Amino acid sequence: MLSRRPLTAALALAMAILSLTADHALLAQNDIYGAWERVLSSYVDAEGLVDYGALKANGMEDFREFMDVLAETDPATLGGKDEQMAFWINAYNAIVVWQVVEKYPVDSVRDVGALWGLVGGFFKNEYHIAGQDMSADNIEHDTLRAKFDDERIHWALVCGAFGCPRLLDRPYRASTLQDTLATQSREFLRQPRGLQLDRDSRTLYLSSYFDWYEDDFIAVAGTVIDYALRHAPDDVAEYVRANRDALRVRIMDYDWTLNEQSRGPRGRRPVPR
């Protein structure tokens, strides 16, 4: 009788090879952000400001590589919810930076893709993403807001202006997505462009985000104030709760100035009210 051991060993070897192949395929999927990481780490500083001039002069090979990756990747193949959210956040931020670099030098995204003199045209320009033509608006409203129902994306999507949250110097990745979104929420609402309290006039000033996306925050916390207090500094939250009946709420003007390094640092820029 023939021994069954050679067959068993061959089967074990085949299974090992299949396992390694699957592992390599998963690694390849998880490493789709390599070129984007090189762009961000090289041309975005700790404040989230971009050296657009240097990127346009020296970083476009990596940037084109990542735009090709975005065009060819089906996010449904990347895994679960966090993998797909990370893909779309990175795609949005890349589209914004790409458009600015295409037209640079500019003073504001308002100068790019103008639509009857309004800023909206910038967010409606289409690029090939995930096998279809999509704009930043498509990604934000039709995909992230519609399908993932997580208001924290507003602190991750960066529209190329000083009024925005900070553009990270690294890609969003599924393994750290939840912690990063939580950190970004706290960070934005602990800085003057996100929230300010004037105790003398008993006025709470909030970013324009709370006007634009009011329903998203109400759905989570009941009111925009209650949402803001979840992430505000402790002393601000304590004062607001103690004086809420007498408190006025005002929405601040948005600073559309381009978020480039030469216009920083952020701390020297007045926050418009």
Overall pLDDT level: 89
Number of helices: 11
| Radius of gyration (Å) | 22 Å
Helix content: 40-55%
Number of E-state strands = 5
Main sheet strand line-up:
3-4-5
**SS class:** mainly alpha
Provide the β-strand percentage band.
5-15%
Order of helices and strands: HHHHHEEHHEEHHHHE
The oligomeric status of these chains comes to single chain
Distance N terminus to C terminus? 89 Å
Biggest sheet character:
3 strands, mixed
What does the model show?
The structure is a single chain. The chain is built from eleven helices and five strands; from the N terminus they run H-H-H-H-H-E-E-H-H-E-E-H-H-H-H-E. The model is unreliable at 1-7 and 12-29 (pLDDT under 50). The chain is mainly alpha-helical. It has a domain at 9-192. The chain starts with a helix and ends in a 22-residue tail after the last strand.
